[in-house]
Amino acid sequence: MPATSVIGLQWGDEAKGKVVDLLTEKHDIVIRYQGGNNAGHTVKFGGRTYKLSLLPTGILQSHVKSVIAPGVVVNPLALLKELDGLIAGGQDCSGRLMISDRAHVICPWHLLEEAAFEKLRGGEAIGTTMRGIGTCYREKAGRFHAIRIGDLVEREVFAAKVRSIVPVKQKLLDALDPEGPRLDADQIIAEYSAAADRIRPMVADTTSWLLDELEQGRRLLFEGAQGSLLDIDHGTFPYVTSSNSSGCGIHNGSGIPERAIQRMIGVAKAYTTRVGGGPFPTELLNETGEQIRKAGNEYGTVTGRPRRCGWLDTVATRYSARISGVDSIAIALLDVLSGHDELFICEAYEINGQRTRNMPSRASDFAAAKPVLRRIDGWKEDISGITRFEDLPKAAQMYVHAVSELVGRPVDLVSVGPDRSQTILIGAF
Ligand code: GDP
Ligand code: IMO
Ligand code: MG
């Protein structure tokens, strides 16, 4: 059963989109299985840059079917806006998209609730993307007021649900902020029903379809969103997203058995970035951090926020690789590290005087973790045009070897620029 998966090993934005795009050629179906339009995956080829948020990256290639599986939370208005953007750019791709009727719908009250709750958290705000992701997943777990895509596309069912939910949500919003916004059930029903009319032809039981396709030998590619350290169960809680964004989410988000996955690739930046709140042991709050942000253009794809930058943390990435069982790693943005005299990689933490290579489970321990850094020679050359590993400066080769050793996995791809062509493949990719 030839399925491949690509997941992020850090706090998101590892260049999963680029790696998925490179692999798409060898696959028939690309599947998003968790998260929603909090993701921002960038792909560059043919002189154009594409930014995908809710749509699977496979949507850009005409030979591929793209699937939004049950574990994704879908904002129908955002979905159509994204599709329309692609159509306007000459990509009429709606015919190759399937959306699970089991996926949950992000509604306007989810966005408003999230804004109100983040405000209440004050200095402890998670720094979410404000797309209603966490509030929609909470609704799903609570079940009572949840709406699925299958409900959305049945006009009467959807209208009845909205009419029963809105008064309750209005009370909640008023309690959170008496001066806050008002929900208009009629307007929501009209807007979402119009979206539903366009979405209906794409809606299907994607689980049965995917299982059939798998049995017929079709090659599936699972596209992870966010990163393993943002996983709701295994990440740096509470500064996480609300889905299983490590490899652990593939089975429950898609309905495809875990043993169908033959190959799991973990993507890591050559350094670390984080958007939003939460401890970050290797963060560089200095000139070097600023240099990396500038060289890597580290501003969020979704929200435009400057990303926090720091040295590569192999305690964290090794943990991610182990919990997800990745077979190999892809190291991205190596070119961004060019021009430094020396570089550092975190190989252990010191927590309250104790040295460890394990990821602490308690938030307070993680907040107290001091990085133990390994020094590595830097290199000055521009490496963004190099396509063979042996042509990299020796110091850059040593850096890649050190990452592989410390994460404990072989490296089968090194990315040296955003374009498809700026890629070094090691072995049979
Ligand atoms: P994703 O969310 O994991 O798909 O990653 P993002 O697209 O949010 O962020 C990665 C950013 O780095 C995007 O702007 C990519 O175009 C860019 N990128 C990808 N690979 C490389 C690389 O090897 N070098 C450089 N300089 N940029 C890259
Ligand atoms: P991709 O797929 C980076 C972060 C947010 C915030 C936390 C919770 O592009 O790698 P949420 O809106 O999900 O409730 O926010 O998670 N976050 C991401 N950071 N890349 C992403 O996606 C992210 N999706 C969510 O910044 O800290
Ligand atoms: Mg991103």
What attributes does this structure have?
single chain; 429 residues; alpha/beta; Adenylosuccinate Synthetase, Chain A, domain 1; Adenylosuccinate Synthetase, subunit A, domain 2; Adenylosuccinate Synthetase, Chain A, domain 3; 3 domains; 10-stranded mixed sheet; 4-stranded mixed sheet; 13 helices; 33% helix; globular; binds guanosine-5'-diphosphate; binds 6-O-phosphoryl inosine monophosphate; binds magnesium ion
Task: Give a verbal description of the structure.
The chain is an alpha/beta fold. The chain folds into three domains: 162 residues, Adenylosuccinate Synthetase, Chain A, domain 1 (3-Layer(aba) Sandwich), CATH 3.40.440.10; 95 residues, Adenylosuccinate Synthetase, subunit A, domain 2 (Orthogonal Bundle); 157 residues, Adenylosuccinate Synthetase, Chain A, domain 3, CATH 3.90.170. The chain has 13 helices and 20 strands. Strands 9-7-5-2-10-1-11-15-19-20 form a ten-stranded mixed β-sheet, sandwiched between helices. Strands 14, 16, 17 and 18 form a four-stranded mixed β-sheet that branches. The chain has a two-stranded antiparallel sheet with strand order 3-4. Helix 3 crosses helix 4, helix 3 packs parallel to helix 6 and helix 6 crosses helix 7. The radius of gyration is 22 Å and the shape is globular. The mean pLDDT is 96. Bound molecules: guanosine-5'-diphosphate, 6-O-phosphoryl inosine monophosphate and magnesium ion. The site of 6-O-phosphoryl inosine monophosphate has 24 residues, from helix 4.
